[in-house]
């Protein structure tokens, strides 16, 4: 009996306090497909607390539109500026809460892990990650956008897809003998 193909929607987020990227990946069986990618532009909002409110509202809106099953979010990395790290952590926390309020499980990935999963190089540039995702997921130039925060977010979603393991195909076989045992009509005598 053939099992129905399972579908999963993964929302990826690259947190930011000026530009926050998001990408939505649909996985049908073992095939990933980009649904959308974009950014939440926060540069015109001067009040840091209103930025957090805006992040919460926009992430809730993205969740309502695409109904993701899971959230993959990039972890902030420690830089030299502690204030920047705190602001980024707040933005990430608000995005996480927006997902948890909708009972969406959250997985956090280090930037190094995401880059390694996409390019095989943990020190890859944003451009290298974007180009690799563009090729693997067949993203047209017109959808790439001016900000790489969107492809960073899509990278988090794709990394999560790779981490969840490839679902077994309905007709899985342990080898040729198993295949022939299940399909005796294929044997030529």
Task: Pick out its properties.
189 residues; alpha/beta; elongated; EC 3.1.21.10
Put simply, the count of helices is 6
Strand content: 15-25%
**Radius of gyration from CA coordinates:** 20 Å
The helix content, as a percent range, equals 40-55%
Largest sheet features? 5 strands, mixed
Give the overall average pLDDT.
88
Low-confidence stretches: 166-170
Protein name: Crossover junction endodeoxyribonuclease RuvC
Keywords: Cytoplasm, DNA damage, DNA recombination, DNA repair, DNA-binding, Endonuclease, Hydrolase, Magnesium, Metal-binding, Nuclease
GO molecular function: hydrolase activity
Family: Belongs to the RuvC family.
Task: Characterise the protein shown here.
Helices cover 42% and strands 20% of the residues. The protein is of the alpha/beta class. Strands 3-2-1-4-5 form a 5-stranded mixed sheet. Strand 1 (7-14) and strand 2 form a beta hairpin.
SSE map:
Layout: E1 7-14, E2 19-28, E3 31-41, H1 48-66, E4 70-74, H2 82-100, E5 106-109, H3 111-119, H4 126-136, H5 149-163, H6 176-182
Parallel strand pairs: 1-4, 4-5
Antiparallel strand pairs: 1-2, 2-3
What can be said about this structure in brief?
Its cofactor is Mg(2+). Helix content is 42%, strand content 20%. By secondary structure, it is an alpha/beta fold.
């Amino acid at each position: 009996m053939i099992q129905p193909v399972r579908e999963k929607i993964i929302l990826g987020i690259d947190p930011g306090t000026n530009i926050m990227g998001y990408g939505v990946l649909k996985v049908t069986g073992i095939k990933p497909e980009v649904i959308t990618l974009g950014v939440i532009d926060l540069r015109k909002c001067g009040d840091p607390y209103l930025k957090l409110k805006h992040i919460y509202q926009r992430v809730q809106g993205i969740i309502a539109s695409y109904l993701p099953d899971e959230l993959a979010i990039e972890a902030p990395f420690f830089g030299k500026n502690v204030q920047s790290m705190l602001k980024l952590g707040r933005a990430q926390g608000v995005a996480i809460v927006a997902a948890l309020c909708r009972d969406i499980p959250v997985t956090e990935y280090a930037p190094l892990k995401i880059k390694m999963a996409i390019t095989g190089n943990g020190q890859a540039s944003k451009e290298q990650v974007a180009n690799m995702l563009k090729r693997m997921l067949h993203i047209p130039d017109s959808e790439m956008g001016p900000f790489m925060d969107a492809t960073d977010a899509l990278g988090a979603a794709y990394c999560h897809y790779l981490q969840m393991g490839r679902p077994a195909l309905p007709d899985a076989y342990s080898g040729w003998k198993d295949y022939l045992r299940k399909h005796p009509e294929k044997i030529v005598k």
